[in-house]
Amino acid sequence: MVAIDATIVSLNGAARFQAKPKTKASRRTIVVTGHGIRGLLDALEETAGNPADSPLFPSARQLGWRTPNNIRRQLRTLLTENPHLPQGFQPHSRADHSRRQPPTSTRRSPTSGSATS
């Protein structure tokens, strides 16, 4: 399981960590299975020496947080190029964005070592 206890927001085109999500509903726990577990374990192993509050899946260019727009773009590309994957994932549209901030990055929890977003 992955605890979602923070979020990333885009401010002037740059990703910024926001420790307190907008709503209580934004804090949640997600069950991760199969490939997701393997991906998280691989990422934890690769980033084991990084500070606890660093991104688990950093941006490729700056090794920092990924912006919400880049996450949506990458998800659309992944689903378009891999039609065999479950197609139920939908990036939030701009109209939806004002109501709900999608989880955008995963980081290690400073207290438990578990991945959080």
Automatic annotation (TrEMBL):
Q: Where is this region: Disordered?
A: 48-117
InterPro entries, per the entry: Integrase-like_cat_sf
- Specify residue ranges for compositional bias: Polar residues: 67-80
Superkingdom per UniProt? Bacteria
Low complexity composition-biased segments: 101-117
Q: What is this protein called?
A: Transposase
Q: Give the originating organism.
A: Leifsonia stereocauli
